[in-house]
Amino acid sequence: MQATFFDAQRMGISDSVELTARSLQAHGVRHRHWAIAYSGGKDSTTLLTVVMHLLKTGAVERPERLTVCYADTRMELPPLAASASRMLGTLRAEGVEVRVALPPMDERFFVYMLGRGVPPPTNHFRWCTGQIKVEPMEAALREMYAGEKILMLTGVRQGESAARDGRIAMSCGKDGAECGQGWYQETLPDHLCDTLAPILHWRTCLVWDWLTGAMPAELRHGYETRLVAEAYGLDEEGSVAEKNARTGCNGCPLASQDAALDNLLKSPRWGYLRPLKKLRPLYRWLREPTQRLRKPGFERSKAGVVRHTNRMGPLTMDARRTALREVLAIQARVNEYAGDMPAVDMLDELEVARIEELIEAGTWPNRWTGDEPTGDQPFERVHRDGSLQREMFGG
Ligand code: SF4
């Protein structure tokens, strides 16, 4: 009897691959152009290599056009960035069309933060995911669209997370999920593409079997996936310490800890990445009132409602310059000791030049002029009855 999605909890790797093949065959025939969404993390690497394996072995018929879309946030952990770069090189050498979805210069993480002055993202103001992950992929999709819906393949799995079971789309950093994993279902415009998650039924242990080569000989895909496994703590014995560790941007300010980086640092091979641990304290420092402007007083909304607006705003120019120096120092320190290990590339020369240009031009986020007081200045709260109260740190 053939396996179904409902058998996923007891399915082995061969059945899982077969079900993936059937899912691709069933839905793929309606589309001439397939695109594979690839972020470099464990699930999308599994998706990519399983699909390539099935196409190469002839188990699934090739579409007329196949594009691998890599979401390059410029912020990936070095082993994942290096692994993705090698994977894309291999695919290009195999004649596969590769497209790199890169945020526009002014939207990139550090350029937006240090050039425009927008403070590091928080759970209440998460500007990063859309800007560095979702929108570049959307733009790539629009560029590829030639009047016929594309079939977008994603590495979303209906794994152990109950949050995912209810609504497959998910947000960064929750339930061990990789940041941005659910971008596709959440936001990609459905008139440009249909979506398919052909490894939806794969359990985490099977993903690791696939990535570490623990599978029957006929399923060996031959792609280099060891660096991905290392990012999740692959040890000398070949077991993976944190099978569901979250990976995301270097020093993600929204994560409660640097789980993936901490795993890596347990191995002396990756010890040179330790300076990256300074990123999160830097973000915390940037959020302090002294490094921010504050807008005191009242604001009238379009509907005429008057609001009290003693709120913390953008980063001061001094804070931006200091943070830029610090990020460059962290990057230089890592790369000084990288040797033949993957270097970190969070800020290149063009990005640094653009940040400096924006600072030089006195760039502030919309509705801020730079004349506002800093957040550590006492301010006067005006009550409805007209009385004044001196306070510190408007929130
Ligand atoms: S990993 Fe963190 S910093 Fe990166 S996009 Fe997700 S929430 Fe933002």
What percentage of the residues does DSSP assign to strands (E)? 5-15%
For the record, the CATH architecture of the domain at 5-224 stands as 3-Layer(aba) Sandwich
Rg from C-alpha positions? Answer: 23 Å
CATH superfamily of the domain at 5-224: HUPs
How many helices? The count is 13
- Roughly how much helix do the residues carry, as a percent range? 25-40%
Using the coordinates above, name the CATH class of the domain at 5-224: Alpha Beta
Q: Tell me the distance between the termini.
A: 62 Å
Polypeptide structure, described:
- By secondary structure, the chain is an alpha/beta fold.
- The chain has a domain at 5-224: HUPs (Rossmann fold), CATH 3.40.50.
- It has 13 helices and 11 strands.
- The strands form 4 sheets. It has a 5-stranded parallel beta sheet. The chain has a two-stranded antiparallel ribbon with strand order 6-9.
- The longest helix is centred in the last third of the chain and has 20 residues, at 317-336.
- Mean pLDDT is 85; it is low at 160-187.
- Residues 75, 121, 126, 128-129, 132-133, 172-173, 179-180, 248-249, 252-254 line the site of iron/sulfur cluster.
